[in-house]
Design goal:
2 domains, 390 residues, Nucleotidyltransferase, domain 5, TIM Barrel, 15 strands, 8-stranded parallel β-sheet, 10 helices
Length: 390
């Protein structure tokens, strides 16, 4: 692995959020690590699996969209699980080597992830900072989860503030273009934004995007949109410290149907497809409901496929080769799944992906409900796919 001191981000002349830059947000991060108190209580949008995100990007470019860069974004946070994030970055970089790559993140885990992200091609980082004071952060967030376990909000808020500072330093040291994005919540952080700007500027951040809170009818707590006068006043305050970035129109992947009833994403058309010799899907799961296991840790696989009447359902389970057999384990696995055209896992190493691919089995990384994932692979178009709450 390349030492961090020898790694750099070659940032483009066009800033990802300048009016000249048009970036597409690829929502491949399935898991969230926080929830703002004023977030909608509606179910969040569904995360794409990496190959779907790439296919959606392909479709946009084929239709003539001018895209300057790609951000790995929600519905969760791209640093919670680096598997889908890195896999998507790799796919985009391999196919579009000149494309600028970035992430939009709260920053938890950024210091630990910077080397892998930069190696994967990340050159732009948008850090979501809505407060740099412990009391402000506690009032804004319903919960923050720095690790696997939920901890008290007071403690988690302190961890967030510390990790955001370390993440800024780490990404800047790696040569990345770091900007801050702050949402204005009237009565909660509107009088605090100048302190955010001053703190971030002292760390070396040179630009900031300001977003007014946009209420919906589903907020847990009612909050009004900030007035034009308030936003103008805040911009004048921030301008003393750094460049204010306009947030341009962004191209946002959306797998829900548009008003015409057509799917907004044609990514499913490029997914692996069943054949006569390989009609089935294999997946690894700890609970039978979600794809949630690392392939290397799985000892059994669930097999889905069409019955004699054509209905796709669970056909059974298969025992996977025991860990410890080295590279031969994946050859054995390929033979075990010789009637499967795809294997779904929450994460998997390069070696099994390459070996299984050479045997005609695509490995797709996802953390999704089984029913919806299987339906998409058999041409269901996601219409029966259920969204998971953050």
């Amino acid at each position: 692995m390349t030492p961090l001191s020898q790694t750099s981000c070659s940032c483009s002349a066009t800033h990802p959020h300048s009016p000249q830059g048009r970036w597409v947000n690829l929502p491949v991060a399935p898991r969230a690590n926080n929830r703002i108190r004023f977030a909608s209580t509606q179910e969040s949008s569904q995360a794409m699996i990496p190959v779907q995100a790439l296919a959606w990007l392909d479709d946009l470019l084929d239709k003539g969209e001018k895209i300057d860069g790609v951000n790995i974004s929600g519905p969760g946070d791209p640093l919670v699980d680096l598997g889908p994030t890195l896999d998507t970055l790799r796919l985009v970089r391999e196919k579009y080597p000149a494309m600028d790559l970035g992430i939009i993140t709260l920053g938890l885990g950024g210091e630990q992830s910077v080397e892998r992200l930069v190696k994967a091609g990340v050159s732009h980082v948008t850090l979501l900072v809505d407060g740099v004071d412990l009391e402000v952060v506690k009032r804004l967030y319903a919960w923050i989860r720095p690790g696997i376990k939920t901890i008290p909000l007071f403690t988690a808020a302190g961890v967030l503030l510390e990790e955001q500072i370390r993440s800024v330093a780490a990404f800047l040291q790696a040569g990345c273009d770091v900007q801050v994005r702050t949402t204005i919540y009237p009565g909660y952080n509107d009088e605090h934004v100048e302190q955010i700007a001053g703190t971030m500027a002292a760390l070396g951040v040179k630009s900031m995007a300001l977003l007014p809170f946009d209420p919906t009818t589903e907020e847990e707590e009612m909050l009004e949109r900030p007035s034009h006068e308030l936003m103008t006043s805040i911009r004048n305050q921030v301008a003393k410290y750094m460049t204010i970035l306009a947030v341009p129109e962004k191209i946002q992947a959306d797998r829900m149907a548009d008003p015409s009833g057509k799917s907004c994403c044609s990514a499913a058309s490029t997914l692996p497809k069943p054949s006569v010799d390989r009609p089935n899907v294999a997946l690894v799961s700890s609970n039978g409901m979600e794809v949630d296991l690392h392939l290397g840790h799985a000892i059994t696989a669930l097999i889905y496929g069409p019955r004699e009447d054509g209905l796709v359902c669970l056909l059974g389970t298969r025992t996977l080769p025991e860990p410890g057999a080295g590279a031969s384990r994946w050859e054995i696995l390929a033979d075990t799944l010789k009637d499967c055209f795809v294997l779904l896992a929450a994460s998997a190493g390069e070696s099994p992906r390459k070996v299984l691919s050479s045997h005609g089995i695509s490995v797709l990384l996802t953390e999704d409900n089984i029913e919806g994932s299987v339906e998409v692979l058999y041409g269901g178009g996601g219409k029966g796919k259920k969204c998971r709450k953050k």
